[in-house]
Specification:
alpha/beta, Spore Coat Polysaccharide Biosynthesis Protein SpsA, Chain A, 8-stranded mixed sheet, two-stranded antiparallel sheet, globular, binds 2-acetamido-2-deoxy-beta-D-glucopyranose, membrane
Length: 392
């Protein structure tokens, strides 16, 4: 009698334990689900935040994003991976796309006007200008190249570093220099920055500034400003180079290649060019292009805005034709659209690197490197002042 009772008592305890266990399991599942849900929320919030941050153009964020990409760029794109004429291999820095995107069915040829009557106005006014940058006297050599460097107000350190390193070949734009240069700015409402840049201008007289708002999506205005200024205030220069303030440019090598390609450059823009390129439709990308801004499925290629060269002839023609070419916010693609309209072409020149060469002074001081991207000031100094051990 007692045994069964005890037995049933044990069964009862066992059952209770089982229910408890099942209950616990359910509770765990529920909390796991809740946790998963929460994590998801946080993740998507992070993505949204990241997008927002990315969309806000401040130098800080773009610098941060650039920095985060540095290691990848360097390890993937050392000098050995660059081959002459690899223009259509879209793997470097400023590149529309290599990824195949799973997009809706192929679209028919679209109606983005390639042509229009004075539809792109860029008649902004100079806020800062020095029309003596390209001045010459009887003893002056010919101006081989004018280098126009895109910058933003807060990048004083970058400008100073460039002035003291690879730009010293320009000899402060003196009358006996065959190389002239200017830094290009748009407008900002930050009065402190305006004041500081004005002071910098008073010292170096090497800054050009127009009254369009400086923003990443306004870079095409800056490019038009560059071509306008070059073709009106520096028309004696034989060649024009556009580059950025995070670039290392080996000027002697640039001069050599300008000379080698002097005839071609009368009808070409040269640099790290991609003959084949597609718009990026992912709005999280820095190079996003909406279907509205560019309905076509392919760009007419482009030469990476990190550094490209052309003749004064082409620069002048691009500026003239641009008034009839609708605005597009990616300046290097916009230039290629103008080039195509003029019946000109893009010329891939080896060693214009839209990525970054390995941090080796022998490369930066060697006789083949043209440009290297995302070179921060401290690295710039090391590459300029550092000794190349192989040659020592
Ligand atoms: C690059 O990677 C190294 C380690 O491999 C790390 O210490 C460094 O901070 C990274 N630099 C950047 C700019 O991400
Ligand atoms: C890239 O260009 C080479 C010739 O320079 C050509 O053979 C190749 O098909 C091109 N690749 C693409 C993807 O267009
Ligand atoms: C350029 O100007 C700086 C100071 O502004 C001066 O130190 C340097 O010697 C000048 N360089 C030349 C080549 O005149
Ligand atoms: C581009 O510049 C124009 C003219 O200053 C300005 O109206 C516009 O807001 C700017 N775009 C951006 C994104 O700031």
């Amino acid at each position: 009698m007692k045994r069964p009772e005890r037995a049933s008592g044990r069964t009862c305890t066992n059952k209770t334990l089982l229910y408890l266990f099942i209950g616990l399991c359910i509770a765990m599942l529920c909390s796991a689900f809740l946790y998963w849900h929460y994590v998801n929320e946080v993740l998507s919030l992070t993505v949204v935040l990241a997008d927002t941050v990315k969309n806000i153009y401040t130098d800080g964020t773009s610098l941060l994003l650039d920095t985060l990409r540095l290691n990848k760029t360097e390890s993937n794109h050392g000098p050995t991976t660059r081959r002459p004429g690899s223009g259509n291999v879209t793997t470097l820095g400023k590149v529309p796309t290599t990824k195949k995107r799973t997009e809706a069915p192929p679209r028919p040829p679209t109606d983005r006007p390639d042509n229009c009557e004075v539809c792109f106005k860029h008649d902004f006014n100079y806020v800062l200008d020095n029309d003596q940058i390209c001045a010459r006297n009887d003893k002056s050599p010919e101006i081989d190249v004018v280098i126009l460097i895109f910058t933003v107000h807060q990048n004083r350190l970058q400008r100073d570093t460039i002035r003291n390193t690879w730009l010293t070949y320009a000899k402060n734009n003196s009358l006996d220099s065959n190389i002239r240069y200017a830094f290009l700015l748009g407008a900002t409402s930050d009065s402190n920055m305006n004041k500081k840049v004005k002071e910098e201008f008073d010292v170096f007289k090497d800054i050009l500034k127009e009254d369009f708002k400086d923003a990443y999506s306004n870079l095409t205005y800056k490019t038009m400003m560059a071509y306008k200024w070059a073709s009106t205030k520096c028309k004696d220069a034989k060649f024009v180079m556009k580059t950025d303030d995070d670039m290392y440019v080996n000027i002697p090598n640039i001069l050599k290649t300008l000379n080698t390609n002097k005839d071609k450059l009368q009808t070409h823009v040269g640099g790290a060019c991609h003959q084949v390129a597609q718009p990026i439709r992912d709005h999280r990308s820095k190079w996003y292009a909406s279907k509205r801004s560019f309905p076509g499925s392919h760009y007419p290629g482009f030469c990476s805005g990190t550094g490209y060269v052309t003749s004064m002839n082409v620069a002048t023609k691009v500026f003239e034709v641009s008034k009839h070419v609708p605005f597009f916010h990616l300046e290097d693609v916009y230039v290629a659209i103008c080039i195509k309209k003029l019946g000109y072409k893009l010329l891939s020149i080896p060693n214009f690197n839209a990525g970054r060469f390995a941090a080796d002074p022998c490369i930066y001081q060697g006789n083949s490197m043209m440009t290297s991207h995302q070179v921060p000031p401290d690295m710039m100094k090391k590459m300029w002042f550092g000794k190349c051990k192989k040659n020592a």
